[in-house]
Design brief:
By secondary structure, this protein is an all-alpha fold. The protein contains 16 helices and two strands. It has a two-stranded antiparallel sheet with strand order 1-2. Bound molecules: geranylgeranyl diphosphate. The site of geranylgeranyl diphosphate has 16 residues, from helix 5, helix 9, helix 10 and helix 11.
Length: 304
């Protein structure tokens, strides 16, 4: 993980150290939050732990923590938000890999949940991880934060539901084999991938006080889309072993992607353009937004 997080710029080591510390923190939090595999129903709990603890870059948690730090957020609230966002993300990957959706046997370098267990277990794992995310976010912190917690719950619920990630997935499944315009592709990904990434940033910001919330939102929207463009490029340019999931899947499934619509060179240009928009949006914050900028760079430079 360390190598993949090192950047070419001067702040490399500091960012890598920060990211490693946060990745280890979220791993511990998830470990404590997920029911023990000894607790009945053991197979379901073991499969939940398999899916949520086994790898992943934790980009959404890192974005949440970085936005919280920018806004001088409450640590306990940032922990809960980062944990909840990673649980929703893990649920989406488990369901996405199922035969009725993208039908992929490999995830995070291991057999996907339905291959390691079975379809019914994978379905329940996704359901239970999603419920656990909202459970975590609704646990009492302190009394004066109750209204804020309800707002945060709503942001995550909307980002995950039919007007967010699940809706984007529905549009994606319906688009197989159909030509999409770039605008149609963009609005699909804004929901499917962008909504949860945006929620990660907004939840982190909500744990504190963002004076320039519109700027934070613009950053989040652009980096969420950039993440997806890079994902489409890696699907073509990388290989299965590095990705930990099946490379070339999108093209083989006849799915419209940024690469099939724009071609590789223009897709790369578009990713740079979105990245530049994201960085520009942070200008009101000056150097206090360094972590978010470094994360934006990491999203562009990632190899898996
Ligand atoms: C099933 C409701 C439902 C939604 C699924 C997000 C999603 C919708 C499916 C994931 C499929 C996919 C490969 C989307 C492309 C972008 C993406 C979310 C990649 C995976 O995220 P990473 O790279 O994964 O952050 P790690 O393993 O690092 O956490």
């Amino acid at each position: 993980m360390m190598n993949s997080l090192q950047l070419a710029n001067g702040g490399a080591l500091a960012f890598a150290d920060w990211a490693l510390a946060k990745q280890s923190r979220i791993q511990q939090l998830l470990d404590l939050t997920l029911p023990s595999a000894d607790l009945a129903p053991q197979t379901l709990h073991s499969a939940m732990r398999y899916s949520a603890l086994g790898g992943g870059k934790r980009v959404r948690a890192l974005l949440c923590y970085a936005a919280s730090e920018l806004c001088h957020g409450d640590e306990a609230m940032a922990d809960a938000a980062a944990c909840a966002v990673e649980l929703i993300h893990a649920y989406s990957l488990v369901h996405d890999d199922m035969p009725c959706m993208d039908d992929d046997d490999l995830r995070r370098g291991k057999p996907s949940c339905h291959k390691q267990y079975d379809d019914a277990t994978a379905l329940l794992v996704g359901d239970a991880l999603q419920s656990l995310a909202f459970d975590v976010l609704s646990r009492p912190l302190n009394a004066h934060q109750a209204t804020l917690q309800v707002n945060i719950l709503q942001v995550l619920a909307r980002a995950s539901g039919s007007l967010g990630m699940a809706g984007g997935q529905a549009i994606d499944l319906a688009a197989v084999g159909k030509p999409l315009t770039q605008a149609e592709l963009e609005s699909m990904h804004q929901l499917k991938t962008g909504a949860l990434i945006q929620a990660a940033v907004l939840l982190g910001a909500a744990s504190g006080s963002a004076l320039e919330l519109a700027a934070v939102r613009t950053f989040a929207t652009n980096i969420g889309l950039a993440f997806q463009v890079v994902d489409d490029i890696l699907d073509v340019e990388s290989d299965t072993q590095i990705l930990g999931k099946t490379a070339g899947k999108d093209a083989n499934s006849n799915k419209p992607t940024y690469v099939t619509i724009l071609g590789l060179a223009l897709a790369k240009q578009h990713a740079q353009h979105l990245h530049a928009n994201a960085i520009n949006a942070l200008s009101p914050f000056g150097n206090t937004a360094l972590r978010l900028k470094e994360l934006a760079d990491f999203i562009m430079q990632r190899s898996f």
